[in-house]
Design a protein that fits this description.
By secondary structure, the chain is α+β, with helices and mostly antiparallel strands. It has 14 helices and 31 strands. Strands 3, 7, 8, 9, 10, 11, 12, 21 and 24 form a nine-stranded mixed β-sheet that branches. A hairpin with a 5-residue loop joins strand 30 and strand 31. The longest helix is centred in the first third of the chain and has 21 residues. The two termini are about 25 Å apart. Bound molecules: adenosine-5'-triphosphate and magnesium ion.
Length: about 575
């Protein structure tokens, strides 16, 4: 494509709303265009890269036995009511009505739709296993859309669904997808880590996230360098502190003025934070958004509460709980902001972290302003309605598998695979008959890739101060020919010759024949991140050009023929990732 006739507009300034490199660079390179918050369009260069990622996804999905279909983004509420998610999904679900007041949503994911297909089309074990997928636009009315393509309200996702007759079949389908994901992200040029993950609102029992490592990522992962443990911090199991066999001392109420934080009370009483316990207070909401009872969660004073584990323990969606207003909660339950302990608390669900029963003589709030109680012991002084692991596995804590200190890293969740089991097939009635004509629910898995988020993740991992550095496999074009003087007949003749030779060889090439200063062209070429630049300038008269890979600082003078041959070689070597 010749730049003189191409639609692209680069920006010198950093757009005000953009904070992270991928957002800044994709906007500056003119690859994406914002419409409203969390809604972006793709311009020609951006769309080419999206299609490259889609092609990689398609090739690997097809090679793994997937069959591509394409479903509507509009979904009728009835299907979501059948699965129970019409209410469970919460405000992220983009709901709308038609002119007859019938409810619909814009699909944030498609489990219901795909389950509906198979319940109509699959009746026999002979039709299983099966894997259907699509690459399609998804809608989520995110609370905080940000970072451009990273967390948007409209985005492109590949979603696949597997259908098997039993758990063993699902294990195999899951393994095949897990391996395909590894190949997909490798081919896109990403450095990533598959980590154990929570299954969230989608449900199911077993899940991994594929996380592209990046400082700007919103996913936090805990991993162990000694063994292979790697999990999101939401999911990571935490080893309980060793149970103590200290004698239980009598409770003692103490005056602790102004000590409404764990730090303050530990300081005041000369205790380690691990000798205290802290309370976190919540209000629950029912499906109509009405208050539906209070929750007090207790963890040891030096621990952090893990919200994902808490909502899982309560078996409610994340949006059905929020921090309580301590004044109204106090009237109903006896809690006192900053001084809440389990003793004397009433009329709320008490969730106790699994390690607290083994800890002795802890200091807790007294449910009385400026007072704490020393020597509080589980069983004797309080109990929990639920006792389970609700704490965060902290950096440096012992690895739950091997005990070595755990490390933390940040990353971008680019894909997730789930074992759904029979959650949807049972609620929506998707059954098959086995050899003996007995009926069983189809066992399902689902597998998502954020295609547009992957594009942003690639930019996060491949850029420098001057712009993007596309891996060949997802670059909008492989080569850019920078023509210094378009008016110079010799130079433009040489540039056209290289252009034609590369096109003939199947190389995707841009020819920058714009009437711009060379400095502008070099800046744009760097910003756009085209992997290989061939500069045609004064040397053209002697049949010489300059060859430069975007990722290297080095420039090499070559003959026109050498440059063409070298370009074809490297593009073919790297174009498939
Ligand atoms: P997150 O935790 O980041 O909100 P999720 O776990 O809810 O994502 P999934 O339901 O697993 O997302 O969706 C599959 C994939 O779709 C994700 O792995 C991610 O790559 C992508 N994705 C999800 N939400 C968004 C979004 N708002 N914008 C862009 N991509 C998204
Ligand atoms: Mg996910």
């Amino acid at each position: 494509m010749k730049c003189s006739t191409m639609h692209f507009k680069t920006l010198r300034e950093v757009p005000a709303e953009a904070e992270i490199p991928s957002h800044i660079l994709l906007l500056r390179a003119g690859m994406i265009r914002k419409l409203v918050s969390g809604v972006y369009g793709f311009m020609p260069l951006g769309w080419r890269s999206i299609r490259k990622i889609e092609d990689i996804v398609r090739q690997e999905m097809d090679a793994s036995g997937g069959q591509e279909i394409h479903m509507s983004a509009i979904q009728p509420a009835e299907l979501w009511q059948e699965s129970g998610r019409w209410s469970a999904y919460g405000p992220e679900l983009w709901r709308l009505k038609d002119r007859n007041d019938r409810d619909f949503c814009l699909g944030p994911t498609h489990e219901e739709i795909f389950t509906d297909i198979v319940r109509n089309d699959i009746s026999s074990y002979r039709q299983l296993p099966m894997n259907l997928y699509q690459i399609q636009t998804k809608y989520r009315d995110e609370a905080r859309p940000r970072f451009g393509l990273m967390r948007s309200r409209e985005f492109i996702m590949k979603d696949a669904y597997s259908f098997d007759r039993d758990e063993a079949g699902l294990d195999e389908s899951y393994r095949i997808m897990y391996e395909a994901y590894g190949r997909i992200f490798t081919r896109c040029g990403l450095t990533f880590r598959p980590v154990e993950a929570d299954s969230g609102a989608i449900g199911g029992s077993n899940s991994h996230e594929f996380t592209a490592l990046s400082e700007v990522g919103e996913s936090e992962i805990a991993y162990c360098e000694k063994c292979s443990m790697a999990a999101t911090t939401e999911r990571a199991e935490c080893v309980d502190a060793k149970a103590m066999d200290d004698a239980e001392l009598p409770m003692e109420e103490v005056h602790t003025p102004g000590t409404s934080t764990i730090e303050a009370v530990a300081d005041y009483l000369g205790l380690d934070k691990s000798q205290t316990m802290k309370a976190l207070l919540f209000v629950k909401y029912d499906e109509q958004g009405q208050e539906d009872g209070y929750v007090a969660a207790f963890v040891r004073g030096d621990r952090e509460l893990n919200m994902t584990k808490l909502v899982n323990a309560l078996d409610i969606p994340e949006h059905a709980i929020a921090f309580a207003d301590e004044e109204s909660m106090g009237a109903a339950t006896g809690c006192v902001g900053g001084f809440t302990g389990p003793v004397g608390l009433h009329d709320c669900t008490i969730v106790v972290d699994s390690e607290l029963p083994g800890q002795k003589n802890l200091c807790a709030g007294a449910c009385k302003v400026d007072h704490h109680i020393k020597n509080v012991n589980y069983g004797r002084d309080y109990t929990g309605d639920i006792v389970t692991d609700i704490k965060v596995l902290g950096e440096g804590d012992p690895c739950p598998v091997c005990g070595a200190p755990v490390k933390y890293a940040r990353g971008i969740e680019v894909g997730q695979v789930f074992k759904l089991g029979t959650k949807y097939s049972e609620s929506m009635g998707a059954y098959y008959k086995d050899e003996n004509m007995e009926s069983y629910p189809i066992v399902m898995g689902c597998y998502g890739i954020g295609v547009s988020r992957t594009l942003a993740a690639v930019v996060e991992q491949h850029h420098d101060d001057n712009g993007i550095i596309w891996p060949m496999s997802v670059a909008p074009y492989h080569v850019i020919i920078t023509l210094m003087k378009p008016d110079d007949e010799v130079q433009s003749g040489v540039a056209e010759k290289i252009y034609d030779a590369l096109l003939d060889a199947g190389v995707e090439v841009m020819l920058d024949d714009r009437k711009e200063r060379p400095g502008v062209k070099f800046k744009d070429a760097d910003l756009l991140g085209i992997p290989l630049r061939i500069t045609v300038g004064r040397g053209a008269a002697d049949g010489m050009v300059e060859y430069k890979l975007r990722r290297d600082a080095e420039r090499t003078d070559m003959t026109v023929e050498e440059a063409i041959a070298e370009a074809i070689r490297i593009v073919n070597e790297e174009r498939n990732g």
